[in-house]
Amino acid sequence: MSSTNTKPAPVCNPDTIGESATPDRIQGMRDACRVAAAVLDRMVSAVKPGVTTYDLDRLGKACMDELGAESACFGYPGQKNLFPAYTCISINEEVVHGIGSLDKVIQDGDVVSLDVVTRYKGYIGDNARTVIAGQGDEATQRLLKVSEEALMLGIEQARPGNRVGDISYAIQHWVEKHGFNVIREYVGHGVGLEMHEHPQIPNYGKRRTGPVIVSGMTLAIEPMVLMGDRNVRLLPDGWTVVSRDGKPAAHFEHTVLVTNKGAEVLTTVN
Ligand code: MF3
Ligand code: CO
User: What pTM did the predictor assign?
Assistant: First the structure.
């Protein structure tokens, strides 16, 4: 990427939004997000029993190469080391930031969360989805359905004049109403020239609190939902977040553009 002194202000920073949300930048985000969605789609279709999470990660990398994109995850600095894979693949009790491995062979009924963040022509697209390999049980199907609904309800709140807390509240309320829990340790975020930009978007909170949402912001909204209680811990690999009670988790994420008409989902292949 370009050096810091030539780097333009972040796309979604509300302090600079008047000058930063130019048509060029918005088009840049549209293109980057379409690429991220295409890669995620390909990976989702490849989830089936017998496939290793290493294979899935390599498939993601191959798609990125094919589309002229780069992984924004690979080499990303964490608390103790750099992220070693191209995508995040989290199975069952793994909530987020799982690392693909040849030792992890997907079994029938496994809950598989795929998180793809790509850089394309300087812009970042970020999206995630959880699927079941095979049928799965009813409780797991419900977990996925409620989590995706929570994402869509959060997205609905991403409109000018609302605050980040309106998104947070909508997600938390829907999730808890169905007996599930959101995690507190990881949050959604602004996204643009960097993967993690201002503002943070927690999946819990109060209405009418937090930063004001304005037109032109690009936001990654991402409920991380636990079937059991909300306690998580970090594995010694420095990345993989797992539920303490060992129950499964789901993760759905879209990058959206805030417009005067409301939020537009950018991470779709259409
Ligand atoms: N969607 C995740 C996030 O926003 C992706 C993280 S990639 C990693 O945090 F590099 F941190 F692994
Ligand atoms: Co994200």
Answer: 0.94
